[in-house]
Design a protein that fits this description.
Layout (H helix, E strand, L loop, with lengths): L2 E2 L2 E2 H5 L7 H30 L5 H41 L4 H17 L5
Antiparallel strand pairs: 1-2
Helix pairs in contact: 2-3
């Protein structure tokens, strides 16, 4: 159970909210990773812009470089998607442990009063 009328249920039991410094460290790393991804995209854009000026004998090398950059960008994006999926599952698991019963009861009571009196929050 997460909530009660008096506040957090865990507050009475000495549990309270949990803070994870790992999550904040992950956020910082994600920002750093985003900068790296933006840098790779910038390199790819520069390479693309310069393809018109590349001599034919160097074109294959330039295209190989573009393919390598695209592979790195793709790998970064796939990693981010995997991380997001893991976080989503973790959030789903946490929400599955929450008892929304008191909230649901309060909402039903509120909606019942609203229907019977015709006023909001009556």
């Amino acid at each position: 159970m997460v909530g009660t009328k008096a506040g957090l249920l865990g507050a009475e039991e000495g549990v309270g909210m949990v803070y994870s410094p790992r999550l904040m460290e992950d956020r910082g790393r994600q920002q750093d990773d985003l900068g790296g991804l933006e840098e790779k995209v910038g390199e790819l854009e520069k390479l693309t812009d310069s393809l018109d000026d590349v001599p034919e004998e160097e074109l294959v090398g330039a295209l190989n470089e573009a393919v390598e950059l695209l592979a790195e960008i793709n790998s970064d994006i796939e990693g981010r998607l995997d991380t997001a999926g893991d976080e989503s599952r973790e959030i789903g698991d946490l929400l599955g442990q929450v008892d929304f019963g008191p909230f649901d009861e309060a909402m039903e009571d509120y909606e019942h009063r609203e229907r019977t009196t015709g006023e909001l929050g009556a």
